[in-house]
Amino acid sequence: MKRMLGFIAAMFIFLGFAFFHESTNGPVTSKKPTVGLLQLMNQPALAQIQSGIYTGLKDEGFHNGKNINIDYQNAQGNQSNLKTMSEKFANENADLAIGITTPSAISLADVMNKTPLVMGAVTDPQGAGLVKNLKKPEKNITGVSDQAPLGEQLDLIQRLMPNMKTLGIIYTSSDNSAVTQYKKFKQLCEERHIKLKVYSISNSNDLNQVSQTMMSSVDAVYVPTDNTIAGAMSTLIKNSDAAKVPVFPAVDSMVKDGGVATYSVNQYKLGVMTGKMAGKLLKGQKISKTPVEFIRYGDLTINLPQAKKMGVHIPDSLIQQAQSKGELIK
């Protein structure tokens, strides 16, 4: 009987210690952090960024389904979906959220003012009202910018189109990133005394008619970082092919879809940078200690078959550069 009482007493002591240990130090198995990943739409460049984010998180030791849960949501280009999905992340108390593109980041910022937010591919964080101080973000937002190397891109167009008289630019008027790049590109053209004709669309339904009109008035076309046009490149290229007018996009995936060449931010690398930044924040790094990051120089991508089709001569030096430090599409 004494042994039984001793055993019961020992059990109470053990259970009491275990309860005390858990209440003071937390549960033995901690909850997996949840990361809300919000993507604006389906298009190749954004898919590369998304893939890079997963890699960047892995590089920081976070593996989806093992020690982290990634709630991936795709708005399919619908603004109301962005709002609903952002609210979903807020309601489920996500530990961190990532917005791929400016509209996604803005939507998250509207409903999550305390949760750490990471911008993935936001061209102008200050102009979008997301961050005031790029070096020391003051709120809950930081991230990685996809600001294109516009000077390099215009240099390339001038080099490949030495007899160009008129350059066209087409962009979506509701896309903040595209509008920002259009304004900066216009200024560059003015400084270099390049005649620039401007065309804008409201949505992808406008692209066919507007681009047909444009092709009859320009010698070449520049397309900024523009999600709507990137998702409908086949329409633009159909009309450029018919008119034999080469297209020089800001993004490498758009070159693969029929553009001639560009110096562009590597979208996958940008995603990796975004994922690594998110991983560091999950480990406890403060937003104020996490400056907004930029990729300063672009990689050269050349579409040789498209250049030949458009009658654009590509110098051997550029071909070698694309082979060694970029991508050459044969």
Automatic annotation (TrEMBL):
<dbReference type="InterPro" id="IPR028082">
    <property type="entry name" value="Peripla_BP_I"/>
</dbReference>
<dbReference type="InterPro" id="IPR007487">
    <property type="entry name" value="ABC_transpt-TYRBP-like"/>
</dbReference>
<dbReference type="InterPro" id="IPR047776">
    <property type="entry name" value="ABC_SBP_TrpX-like"/>
</dbReference>
<protein>
    <submittedName>
        <fullName>ABC transporter, substrate binding family protein</fullName>
    </submittedName>
</protein>
<dbReference type="Pfam" id="PF04392">
    <property type="entry name" value="ABC_sub_bind"/>
</dbReference>
